[in-house]
C-alpha cells in the first residue's frame, strides 16, 4: 500500500513588485559629480555585495524569527511573539494576524496600526479581498501598489500601498494569513517591501504554524484547549498526542542548534537520530540533493553501515527517495520492497533484497524547492508506520528544511564575502598598474582607469623607453592604451597578461610591428575563442615632436593643436589582438609639437549613455579637449572623466573608463 500525501505548504505565487527610483535632481554641479562618482565606485562590487547583503539579511532575520518564537509559553504568547517578528524584523508599522474560524470566516486576532473598530468588525469570507484570496489559494502575494494591482483603495488611510500577505499553512490546511503594510525604516522613511521581506514573511508564517500546532498539542496533552480554531484531529489518541508533543520537543532542540551552533552536520544528526528514536524506527537517513551532481547523498543516518552510506547515489525519480525528491510529496509505505520497484505483482529478487517493510519518506521542502529527503525505515515493534507517524516526520522535516536553508544562506554569505575580498584585492593590484603622473622636461603625462566592476579589462601604461639610457630621460616615451573584450575578473586577467607580454617584448625588440605580431600570437594562443584585446602602442619622441604608433583595432588617439585648432586622429593599423593567428601590423605616425594635447582613451568614454539613450560620443570628447586644453595633464584627465559621469547621471556607466593625457610644453 502506498499513500501519497501532498506537501502541507502551498507554494509562493508569482509576486508583483513595482520598482520606484526617486529622481535625484541634484541642486549643484558638485552634488551631481559626487553622486555620479559614488554610484560608479559602488558598482565594482555591486553584484557581490548585493548577494552578500541579501543572504546576510535573510540569515540574520531567520535567526531572529526562530529566537523570538522558540520560547513561546502559550497561544497568546506565541501571537505576541509573531507580532514582535513583524514589527522588529520586517519593520511593518501596520500588520495583522487573521485566523480562520470554524465557519471559514477570517477574523483578526492580533494587529498593530489598526483601530479597535476595524479589528472587531473585520470578517472576511474565503476569496474576499486580498487576505481572503490568499487564504483561499494558499499562495503568498507581494504588491508594489496594492491599490493599482487589485483595484482596491484604502481611502487615504495608508501612507504606502506596498503590502505583503502570506498564508499560515499546516498539513495543507490554511490556518490564517499574515498581512503587512507600511515598512518603516529606523530613520522614519516608508519604503516598499521587497523579495527578501517576502521570503522572511513566508518563513515567519511557516514557523508560526509549527509553533501554534506545538502549543496546541501540548495544551491538549495537559487537558486544555486553545479555543483558536476547529480541531481537525479531535479523535486522535492521547498516545499520539504525547508522541506529537515529544516531536515538538525535538523541533525545539533542532531550532536551538540552528540558532546557537550553526553546525549543519550536528543539526542533521540530531534530527534523524531524534526522529528514529521518537518513531521507534530501526534505521533512518537524511539525504541532501547535490544540484551539481544531480543526485541525493546521505549526510546523516542512524544504524546504516558506512559502506552503504558511501555507495548511495540516487537520481531524481530513482527508487523511493528519488520519487519523493522528484514529486515533492511524502510517502507512507507498508510494502517497501514492492513499492520500490513498482507494483504488487513484482517478483524481482532485487525488490525483495530491499530490506525494509514499512517506511516513511518525506521531502525536506521549503519555498518551492526540495532540498533533500528524510527516510525512516521499519519500526522496532514490527508494526507499520501510521498517519500520525507521517505527520511527526513531516513536522521534523519542515524544521530541518529551515535549518538547511539557514546553513545554505550562511555558506552563500561567507562565499560572497570571500569573493568580495578577492575582488577588492584584484582591484587593488590592478590599481597599482596605473602609473603615477609623469612630469619631465617638456612633457606631462597623466592617466586614470576606472573599472566598471571590481576589476576591469582596460589597460593604460606609459614609461621612458630603454633607448633613453644615458640620454635625456624626457626624450622618448612608450604609450600604451588597450581594452579587453568583456568585463570583470576574466578580462582583467587577460589585461594583466597583455601588459606583461608588452613590457617583456619591448625589452627585446624596438620594431612595433613585430611586437604587435608576437603579442597577437601569444594572446590568441592563451585566450578563449571570442576573446580579444584592442591595443594602441606609441613611441613618443619629444625631441623630434613625433608619435610613431601601431594600433590593433583600438579607438583613435586624438591630437589637438591649440594654435591652429586642429584635431588629428590616428588610424587603426591592424586587427584586434587574439582574433586570428599570424596577423601583420603597419606603422603610423603623426606630428605633435609644443603646446599640443594628445589623448588616448578606451571606448567606455564615447559609448557612455545617459537616461535619454544618447551616447557621449567622440564629438563631445573632442570638444572637451578643446575647452580644457589650457589645463595641466592631470586635471585635464580628471575633468574629462567628470564630464562623462555628469553626462550619464543618474545612469551608471556600464563600461570601464580609461584615458591618458599627454601635454607637450
**CATH topology term of the largest domain:** Phosphatase 2c, domain 1
Overall pLDDT, averaged?
Answer: 78
Biggest pleated sheet: 7 strands, antiparallel
Shape: elongated
Helix percentage: 40-55%
Number of strands: 24
Q: Output the CATH homologous superfamily of the largest domain.
A: PPM-type phosphatase domain
Proportion of residues in extended strands: 15-25%
Radius of gyration: 34 Å
The CATH C-level name of the largest domain is Alpha Beta
Separation, N- and C-terminal Cα atoms: 94 Å
Q: Please count the helical segments.
A: 18
> What class would the helix/strand composition place it in?
alpha+beta
Unreliable runs: 1-30, 36-45, 224-236, 340-354, 468-474
By CATH, the architecture of the largest domain is named 4-Layer Sandwich
Question: Can you offer a commentary on this structure?
Answer:
The chain is α+β, with helices and mostly antiparallel strands and 665 residues long. It has 3 domains: 1-21 and 54-235, 2-Layer Sandwich (Beta-Lactamase); 237-429, 2-Layer Sandwich (Beta-Lactamase); 433-664, 4-Layer Sandwich (Phosphatase 2c, domain 1). A hairpin with a 5-residue loop joins strand 7 (173-184) and strand 8 (190-191). Strands 2, 3, 4, 5, 6, 7 and 8 form a 7-stranded antiparallel β-sheet that branches. A 6-stranded antiparallel β-sheet has the order 1-11-12-13-9-10, sandwiched between helices. A 6-stranded antiparallel β-sheet has the order 14-15-24-23-20-21, covered by helices on one side. Helix 2 (46-70) packs antiparallel against helix 3. It is built from 18 helices and 24 strands.
